[in-house]
Specification:
single chain; alpha/beta; 4-stranded parallel β-sheet; 10 helices; 15% strand
Length: 222
């Protein structure tokens, strides 16, 4: 069962400004990555469920977050069907992120009042998602659309909350461009939790990068 309501999750996304994305099949490595993000100030993590038995890893990480990392909100990404969403919700997912727009996932999440963030690429998709209760839309792949697309959407729909994923880096110039365009938060995967960090198990380095990125987001928002 989710530990946080969809409004609490949406508010945390807005306040934090970043949502780290991560997947690895090694549970102990995952716990260390999760703690490094937490110690760096992140209060959300999107587990990108892309591997075999990923649900087992997510279950272990969620239990760890509940017992050892108070206030850490665990969610799941890369889901493409309602059955998978239901599975991860039963394992404690507090939010669901999808690469595509799926009404069946919206129904499952809304039934349990869990935030869902569908991948959208047109104004029509965004409007339909909001009609189905979406609080924060995922712009994916962000690098294809870019900040100008966000600015264009915010013109006729200033109420729309957008989270680009893909094409976002930890560089101040990049983050400033996105937030100046009007994004609510950004999803950060390998640009934040790099292969080098995973290979070297550089958890302190990750903690430092997360902290600096959150500080940069605060700076570019002012």
């Amino acid at each position: 069962m989710a530990q946080y309501t969809r409004i609490e999750v949406a508010n945390t996304m807005k306040e934090s400004g970043i949502v780290p994305l991560f997947y690895h099949e090694d549970i102990e490595l995952g716990k260390n990555i999760l703690k490094a993000c937490y110690d760096g100030g992140a209060r959300l993590l999107e587990f990108t469920a892309r591997g075999d038995f990923a649900h087992e890893v997510f279950a272990a990480l969620t239990k760890y977050a509940i017992s050892d990392l108070p206030g850490m909100i665990m969610g799941v990404g890369s889901l493409t069907d309602a059955a998978s969403a239901s599975l991860y919700i039963s394992l404690g997912a507090n939010f669901i992120v999808t690469p595509v727009f799926r009404e069946d996932i919206a129904i499952v999440c809304n039934r349990r009042k869990i935030l869902w963030s569908p991948g959208c690429g047109t104004l029509s998709e965004i409007a339909k998602a909001e009609e189905l209760g979406c609080e924060i839309v995922k712009l994916f792949p962000g690098n294809i659309y870019g900040p100008k697309f966000v600015k264009g959407i915010k013109g006729p729909q200033p109420w729309t909350n957008i989270m680009p994923t893909g094409g976002v880096t930890t560089e101040e110039s990049n983050l400033k461009e996105w937030f100046d365009a009007g994004v609510t938060c950004v999803g950060l995967g390998s640009q934040l939790i790099s292969k080098k960090i995973l290979t070297n198990k550089d958890y302190k380095g990750l903690e430092s990068i997360v902290k600096k990125t959150i500080e940069t987001v605060k700076k570019v928002r002012t």
